[in-house]
């Protein structure tokens, strides 16, 4: 026998072995591939439902909202974030003009300082420690603000809305 025939024969045996192993794994009903419409996997363990930390989720969203609102305000396009503002806050921000030399940099930290509820709405106050860049003076400004967010309990709108801003420092 020539060495080419032996090589082909060995590759053939390896191929047959691999096909056999794949058929055993993929072709069985207890294998890893399951048609979810027809069969549910059998498991000894029940899924454990872990409740989300609502404050962590809220703060992530509040940080994003802060950034979006400040950037929209600085570019005088506050209408782009009107869904994140109460009508009163929208009017106030549309009337005010942002200083052109100040640019938002980043949210350094945020924390919930008040969390309350009444019959109509949920209210959370968030303390933001942020950095802004003053283009005119080439300096970083540290700013601390308290923003008030509210959510109407009866509304189907999932967004919290900004209703107040208080400059702390």
Briefly characterize the structure:
It contains 3 helices and 4 strands.
Question: What can you see in these coordinates?
Answer:
Helices cover 32% and strands 30% of the residues. With 169 residues, it is an alpha+beta fold. It has a domain at 54-167: Nuclear Transport Factor 2, Chain: A, CATH 3.10.450.240. It has a 4-stranded antiparallel sheet with strand order 1-2-3-4. A hairpin with a 4-residue loop joins strand 2 and strand 3 (139-152).
CATH architecture name of the domain at 54-167: Roll
Shape: elongated
Helix-strand category:
alpha+beta
Beta-strand portion reads 25-35%
End-to-end separation = 89 Å
For the biggest β-sheet, the strand order reads 1-2-3-4
Counting H and I runs of at least 4 residues, what is the number of helices?
3
Quick one: CATH class of the domain at 54-167?
A: Alpha Beta
CATH topology of the domain at 54-167: Nuclear Transport Factor 2, Chain: A
Number of strands: 4
Low-confidence stretches: 31-41, 43-52
List the helices and strands and how they pair.
Layout: H1 3-26, H2 54-74, H3 87-95, E1 102-117, E2 121-134, E3 139-152, E4 161-167
Antiparallel strand pairs: 1-2, 2-3, 3-4
What are the main properties of this structure?
single chain, 169 residues, alpha+beta, Nuclear Transport Factor 2, Chain: A, four-stranded antiparallel β-sheet, elongated
